[in-house]
Amino acid sequence: MKTLYLSIIVMSVISGIVMIASTNLAFAEQPPIMITQVELWGPTSFYTDGVKLCEYDGTSLGPWAIGWIELYNTKNETMMIADIGIRDSGGEGSYPSITLGPHEYCYFPTQDRFTTRIGVGGSLGNGLPIHDNATVTLLYSIQPFAGKTLYNYSTPKLSDDFGDTRTWQLVDGSWIFKEANIKHEFPTKTTLLSPSHQIESGINVKDLKCKEGFVVVVKKSDPTNWYLQDVPSCVTPSSASKLVDRGWGVPEQTIPIQNTNSTVTYYVEGSKIDQIMPDLTTRGLTLSLETTSDSKMTLFVPRSFIDSTATGDYASFNVTANGNKINYDAHLTPTDRMLTILFPNGTKSIQIIPRPFTENQG
Fold first, then answer.
1. How far apart are CA 265 and CA 252, in angstroms?
2. Cβ contact 47:97 at 8 Å
3. Which of 78, 84, 91, 89 is nearest to 32 (CA)?
4. pLDDT at residue 28, as a whole number
5. Which run of H or of E encompasses 345?
6. pLDDT category of residue 27 using cuts at 50, 70 and 90
7. What average pLDDT does the segment 139-162 reach?
8. How large is the average pLDDT for residues 180-201?
9. What's the number of CA atoms in the CB half-sphere (13 Å) around residue 196?
10. Mean pLDDT of 266-270
């Protein structure tokens, strides 16, 4: 079997115009190596097993990878790929040689939760991964015995503002945005991480996954201490009820934002939310509560509601309890604004008002 040697550089180029152009090929025929799928911004909870990673011997992608690309060998020959570099707005790295068999796929993680710092422990971090108007360009050379042949392949400008498991995919010559289509080269094994390991991997408590027939319950912590973290567990629904009745656990709850299509997920100790009223002008929220003790509340407010494209990104919030300003802690996830709030017994109303980024300058 003839072996071909290649050098590949993958780079993301940001453009200022939103458009979807046709794929630009600098080939008279189908290129030997192509980019066939691009994830610009996925959830931290994404995980799939049984795949071929381009740069490692592992067979799982995620849960740290929130951005990745899929490469495909179009030829009926084994390709030895060397001198690999991936360049994007965050910098450039070099990677070891890889081998792609005939018509084989492999996956390159391009963004992860550590570099973007999205999710638990990341606060607002370094911002979102690059996900608007990104052109992914594949440059490489094939150097058989008779000399070198150069290739240049580019995707159209791609955007993904959703932070979900949908990806851009090359299907019959056109780029289509739909649910991820992963090629499993190896037998898959079902591995469900424990709740604590899921948290360590950057998955927030709202997105934890349990075995079928189990639900998440959070163990109560000191409601006056920011640094004592809630501990999640997967238990049966009947056990969850008993733990809540005994005062050990806090269940996940949901409540709609009145007069909208949005729903807030929350965990709260020592209080109950009766309703949430929105201010559609400021994108703020007013929570009506019943409290029986000092309380700690973790809210997951959908970014589809609270983030206003007209106002811009929010750097902070004004949070008050019964009209008095109180402290809070905030984290950014692909889908939600996660806020942890401590408030005293007797609180009947909490207001959360976003402050546009421009208000936080100077």
1. 7
2. no
3. 78
4. 46
5. none
6. very low
7. 74
8. 77
9. 3
10. 84
Contact 151, 161 (CB under 8 A): no
Task: Count Cβ atoms within 10 A of the Cβ of residue 46 and give its class: 0-12 exposed, 13-18 middle, 19 or more buried.
Answer: buried
**Per-residue pLDDT, 241:** 80
CB atoms within 10 A of CB 311: 15
- Asked if 116 and 202 touch (Cβ cutoff 8 Å), the reply is no
Contact 274, 288 (CB under 8 A): yes
Q: What is the mean pLDDT of residues 180-192?
A: 78
**Cα–Cα distance between 1 and 320 in angstroms, integer?**
71
Tokens of 214: 């189990």
Q: What phi and psi, each to the nearest 5 degrees, are found at residue 357?
A: -55, -35
DSSP state, residue 32: S
Distance CA 29, CA 21 (A): 19
CB neighbours of 294 closer than 8 A, spacing ≥ 6?
223, 224, 270, 342, 343, 344, 345
Read off the amino acid at residue 99.
Answer: T
Please, which residues bridge with residue 126 across strands? none
Residue 123 has pLDDT above 50, yes or no: no
pLDDT digit string, tens, across residues 220-258: 666 555 544 567 888 888 888 888 777 777 888 899 999
Q: CA-CA distance, 323 to 6, in Å (whole number)?
A: 65
Q: Is the peptide bond before 96 cis (omega within 30 degrees of 0)?
A: no
In DSSP terms, which residues pair with 34 in a beta bridge? 72
DSSP letter for 304, please.
H
